[in-house]
Write the structure tokens for this entry.
Amino acid sequence: MSTSKVWYITGASQGFGLSLVKKLLDAGHRVAATSRNVQALKNAVGIVDSTRFLSLAVDLSNTDSIDESIRQTLSVFGRIDVVVNNAGYGMAGTVEETEEQKIRGIIDVNLVAAIDVIKHVLPVLRAQRSGYILNIGSVAGFVGAPGWAIYSATKAALAAFSEVLALDVAEFGIRVTVVEPAGFRTGFLTEGSLAYTETKLDGYEAVKKTQERYLAMNGRQAGDPEKAAEIFMRLAGRSDPPVHLFLGVDAYNRASKKLAAMTEELEKWKEITLSADFS
Ligand SMILES: NC(=O)c1ccc[n+]([C@@H]2O[C@H](COP(=O)([O-])OP(=O)(O)OC[C@H]3O[C@@H](n4cnc5c(N)ncnc54)[C@H](OP(=O)(O)O)[C@@H]3O)[C@@H](O)[C@H]2O)c1
């Protein structure tokens, strides 16, 4: 029996998405990949077996464009087994200096587009009574750093959404994971990807310091996107994938520290927490 699967991946012209597309094609899978720039995507993927690769020009802020891409995937490959909501970008700066339009824009791409893709693909997965949804969140959605409030909010929302979605769709044999990476060596911290507002206001020392540290980290992040792509593929092969998967040593350390601090705080305030119900 063939183990070839059909993958649908958003934001695939570089970074995690591109590494994953290439590895999947090498392993014999069929891949539908979206990009804002389909020519850049084709160039980046290189020459491949065109019967197994479908490049799709998709505007993720447009629900019709998403719907059409799912239709095309089905008409070419006949099914969808794995959906990867990967497209996304970072935003750094103080909240007060970030324009409202930029705030709405990042929520649209990092959160609403993922929900929209899932809305369009769920009828297919439900009918198949199988499927795997992999949402690319961030450790920043669980443990944020100064200057990343808006980005962290989008990824925290994606994680919360994924947790509940996993409960909603389990009875249909559909599994959901939110992957929460720390710093990986992709285009994430480059000018083309990161929306960055220089902090000009007095004060905000923690924000300024963290911004400098992050920008200096570009190209030196500990996380290897090739290894991440292999992990995504292994997850899709499992019948028991986790709901949350933190990725990278830094992600593990930050998450475990936060969990311990949260447990401590929960217990410290337990009496007041429990006192709020009708007696
Ligand atoms: N690298 C990290 O350190 C890190 C850590 C935690 C989480 N993540 C998450 O991992 C995912 C992939 O990022 P990456 O690290 O691979 O970075 P990347 O190299 O910058 O790639 C990001 C991809 O997302 C798409 N994208 C970026 N801005 C977009 C926009 N405004 N509208 C639509 N699509 C857009 C792009 O797709 P097209 O150009 O093909 O349209 C691009 O291929 C993101 O969701 C990111 O938040 C990354």
User: Anything to note?
Assistant: The radius of gyration is 20 Å.
